[in-house]
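Structure first, sequence second, as always.
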């Protein structure tokens, strides 16, 4: 991983990865998924690219959030498939999906790791944690019925793993964690995080940068896998 501060990439000319390249990645990922299904239970990774269809998310010039996060999601899923995980995405194309559908897919795939991807309006990578330490009294009644209730520790471990990996790739000072109040993620029964990438003004998105982001996020998944494998053995 090259240690290129995102801000230094500002002046580069941004463009979205060619569709051909992502189609290739998706085909590789489908092939890996079939292979994995034949063997034993591998950890299930569900990547959740935000927005889709008529919901573009943030738009700047030629760039739109729904396309950038879909490209990164496909890259992460391909890496995870090759790395021996069962990888899937809540959406693999440009269509609208409800929060309920996204959560249902994570249950259907028996997700061990669930990662929502968005682009934010800040220069840092912000990792939102559905529950950091000790939920407030105000939130407890909601969380008692939610998927996250039994996964707080795993989510905290995934956060640690992801902070390390993204910090190594892009600089520790560029990665911040924030608690996420009751949201879609609170209903997910898996280690779950929402990663909000730097704004279109603060980073120059290109297929190269998107590949670097996917690599770093996948390293975070691997770190978490190592951490939990040590505990289970
Ligand atoms: Zn978004």
């Amino acid at each position: 991983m090259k240690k290129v501060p995102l801000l230094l990439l500002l002046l580069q000319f941004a463009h979205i990865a060619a569709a051909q390249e992502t189609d290739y990645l998706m085909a590789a990922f489908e092939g890996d998924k079939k292979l994995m299904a034949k063997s034993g239970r591998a950890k299930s990774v569900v990547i959740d690219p935000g927005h889709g269809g008529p919901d573009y998310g943030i738009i700047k010039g030629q760039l739109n959030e729904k396309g950038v996060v879909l490209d990164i999601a496909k890259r992460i899923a391909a890496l995870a498939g090759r790395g021996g995980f069962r990888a899937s995405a809540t959406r693999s194309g440009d269509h609208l999906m409800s929060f309920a559908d996204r959560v249902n897919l994570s249950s259907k795939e028996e997700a061990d790791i669930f990662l929502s991807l968005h682009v934010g309006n800040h220069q840092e990578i912000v990792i939102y944690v559905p529950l950091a330490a000790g939920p407030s009294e105000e939130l407890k009644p909601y969380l008692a019925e939610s998927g996250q209730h039994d996964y707080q520790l795993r989510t905290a471990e995934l956060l640690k793993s992801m902070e390390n990996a993204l910090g190594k790739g892009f600089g520790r000072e560029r990665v911040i964690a924030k608690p996420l109040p009751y949201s879609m993620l609170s209903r997910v029964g898996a280690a779950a995080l929402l990663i909000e990438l730097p704004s279109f003004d603060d980073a120059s998105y290109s297929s190269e940068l998107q590949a670097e982001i996917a690599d770093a996020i996948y390293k975070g998944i691997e770190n978490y896998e190592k951490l939990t494998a040590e505990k289970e053995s």
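Margin note: Residues 6-232 form a domain with the Aminopeptidase fold (CATH 3.40.630.40).
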